[in-house]
Structures are given as structure tokens and as C-alpha cells.
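lol ok so funny story. i was supposed to be doing the assay writeup but got distracted and ended up predicting the structure for this chain instead. priorities right. anyway since i did it might as well share w the group, maybe its usefull for someone
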Amino acid sequence: MKKIISRYYFLIAILLVIADQFFIRWLLHSDLAAGLSDFAYYLSDMLLNFLVVLPAFVPIIEIDLEYG
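and the output, tada:
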């Protein structure tokens, strides 16, 4: 059961990374981000990455605590 869950979350993590890269590229290369300074651009990039990584870590930690 644990191998199935770990494979499932590995696949979800890969899909999240791909979706994250497309979303960030789409959002940060739009006209909205054209007026941002370098600092604001990279801060926005880091915040968007954080918003994708955090929801991915929560279920992984919960499953590790449950089955670990």
C-alpha cells in the first residue's frame, strides 16, 4: 500500500511541477508583470513557487505520519 501511495504522490508532484512552470511562465511573462521591478518579479516568482510547493508537502507529510 505504501509503494502505491508513494508512486501516486510522485506522479502528482511531477504534474505539479509541470503545471507550475507553465503557470508561472504565463503569468510572469504577461503585460501585468511587464511593469514590475526585478525585485518584485523575482519575489512574485518565489511566492508562486511557494504556493505550489506547500499544498504538495502537506499530504506527503500527513501520509508519512500515518504510515511512517
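The chain has one domain: 2-67. The chain has three helices and no strands.
back to the writeup now i swear
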